[in-house]
Amino acid sequence: MVVTNAKKIRWAGTVLGAIALIGILLNSNLLGVWAGPVMSMGVSQSGRYIVSAHRDNKLILWDLQEKQWDKLSGEANLYSAYFVPDQNVFLWQDTDNTVTAQTVDGELRKQFQHFPTYGHVISSDFGTYLSSDEYWNVFSGYGDTKRPVLKDGVVPSFIGAGKLLNLSLDLDTTFFVTAGFDDDHSAISEHSPLNSSQRFSKYGGVTLWDAETKKPVAKLRGNSSKTHATISPDGQWIVSADENGIGLFWNTNKPEIRHRLAGYHSGIYLDDSPFETGDPRNWDESELIDAPAGLNNFTIAVAFIHNSEYYLRFGNNSHMAALYKTGSPWPVKYFDLGESPRLVTYGSNYARNTAIATSPESGILAMGHQSTGGISVYQFDPEKLTLERVWVVE
Questions:
Q1: For 9-68, what is each residue's pLDDT tens digit?
Q2: Residue 369 contacts residue 344 (beta carbons within 8 Å)
Q3: Please, what are the domains in the chain?
Q4: What is the spatial distance between Cα 330 and Cα 333, in angstroms, rounded to a whole number?
Q5: DSSP β-ladder status, 138-140 and 129-132
Q6: Where on the phi/psi map is residue 245: left (φ > 0), alpha (ψ -120 to 50), or beta?
Q7: Is 254 helix (H, G, I), strand (E, B) or coil?
């Protein structure tokens, strides 16, 4: 009887020890993150912190320096994780529609009620707040200051297009850009962005807006189908690319002039070529670099990685990224982001292109994974033109 009790005591001690060990591992972040896939994320300007909202409504704050993370909430809006420029402050919205701006140390900076956001941005002084709903309507402000900026139809929309209307704001709050799904070629003067009587929006494509007046400056046409676009931190350049493989860029001083990005294998299509369709002389291949296997022109996202000088283009169903220098149509270098773990770029996840985020000031790239709640983080070196994976959490 004594031996049996001793065995029971040892067994119980083993179980309790295992439970304690699991607790230690969980607290030390050694077992991976227990969360659904990332749906939206932001990187602090310093590059140290990342905030992410997940499919199961978790909100997680990641510390790249300490290689630690903390679950801050289990009731976060999927598309609300965003870092405020120039501050260690991030935005998020809970499932009761309360938008919160808080520091990485938990200090509350701002809080207000709002509609369920499908993407939002805010300026560093909190003076400009822009948000989109599921119908791709865009609003400025909140509460008593909320007013529509874009509200001219219910098609396209998040549900119909399968992606967000992406919002991008420059650091000086001079311009902002919207981009979704559209090939309309009408002039701004022909259609008001606030014509709610029509069903089909005329502003679903890439559009440049004045951040002060909230009026459209230019329709930047040329893309088709699902399109992602962003504006450079200095407000001088807009870059776009789409699921059909078309890449374009514009200078905000001359938005009427459209420039084509080179395809990885085909080069630049010459709009003014005198040759017949299908003639290889319609393409300029003069400055193409060797393209490795696994590249895909079909684009899920673009993001600046070094101030306003370099940006990355991410292919759909690909673990490769292309580096471009601003103002040039030619790829500079190609980066292998790693086949394992599979990144959010796999699976035609255009509704999750907000699970890719960068800090152009620090050269940090963060990406969610295809089917788990982990992230992969990369460091860009502008001198060596390298992109090194520095942290993976599965």
A1: 344 445 434 444 444 344 445 557 899 999 999 999 999 999 999 999 999 999 999 999
A2: yes
A3: 37-393 (2.130.10.10)
A4: 9
A5: antiparallel
A6: left
A7: coil
